[in-house]
Amino acid sequence: MDLKYLIALDGSTASMAVVHYAAAMLPKDRSEIVLFLVELDMPESFWDIYPDPENRIHKEEMVEWATRQHKCFASVLETARSILVEAGFPRKCVNIKMYRRNTGITRDIISESMDGYAAVFAGRKGCSNLARLPIGNVARKLVSRILHIPLVIVGENAETNHILIGFDDSRDSRSCLRFSASLFAGTDKQFHILHIARSFNLFNGEFQNPGTVTVRQTIDDQEKNRRMKIEPAMEKALQILKEHSVEKTNMESLIITGYMNRSLGLLDMAEKEGWGTIFVGRRGVSRIQDFLMGRVGEKLVEMARDQAIWIVN
Predict the structure, then answer these.
(1) Residue 126 in contact with residue 14, Cβ under 8 Å?
(2) Which pTM was predicted?
(3) Domain end residue (candidates: 135, 154, 173)
(4) Containing domain of residue 228, as a range?
(5) How far apart, in whole angstroms, are the C-alpha atoms of residue 42 and residue 59?
(6) Can you give 245-313 as a three-state secondary structure string?
(7) 214 and 137 together in one domain
(8) Which residue, among 84, 244, 73, 77, has the nearest Cα to 165 in the 3D structure?
(9) What is the structure's pLDDT at 32?
(10) Which of 5, 188, 230, 236 is deepest in the core (most CB within 10 A)?
(11) What pLDDT digit, counting tens, does each position of 73-132 carry?
């Protein structure tokens, strides 16, 4: 069965990177893609000049500006479609939707996402050219408001052959396994299931020079108990991939230590190995409503630059 994906564009370099990522990542024989772009009513800068620009700007000038904008965006969308078609997606499976802003760019994207999509793709940043800006305004809002389906925030140079799955044996991390396996089973994608066993040291991520033998014994016991709990769960995680027809040679499970922060551990591993796709559950073991986004996913979206972060319910 074909799955439908929504790719939110704004014509920027960052949003076009999403198209290239999707073209390389998604299965070409079972994907339907909608390229979605929201047109502005008028330049945002007009609001900096006039308190009521819709009444102060000549109608002819607004029509001329809107016409130029429409032609520019239509060209961008056609370019995006060509990228996907040239990558092997059937032209009939790549559709374009371009609408005038209704309730706001983010809210219009969310409204469209309710129409039977399997996931939403967006770039980390839009038209902003501020290098130090970690994530754009629209992407930030989507992260906190797209709660019903997976959201993919894409960096500009995301590698597409390796899939790193953050695993903590929570319901959402198991959903990551099932969702990623259902999408990419039968492909040559390499699956890496990673559990970050956080350090007990509160200062530098490593336990060094314990004050007493009793403290060291306590740490060793805790480490042993933790491994006894997570190792069977990791075996079950591999079994989930096998049940979805992922080849044994295309999967591995890893437990690494030495990190106080799981998101840093995931990102550090991805950067060291050159892996470009990271799957995380929207929430981890803690399912408190206040942590709807989850600390791991939230931090990854903020810190990642050249990776695509899949946030899965």
Answers:
(1) yes
(2) 0.85
(3) 154
(4) 162-312
(5) 11
(6) CCCHHHEEEEEEECCCCHHHHHHHHHHHHCCCEEEEECCCCCCCHHHCCCHHHHHHHHHCCCCEEEEEC
(7) no
(8) 244
(9) 98
(10) 5
(11) 999 999 999 999 999 999 999 999 999 989 889 999 999 999 999 999 999 876 555 555
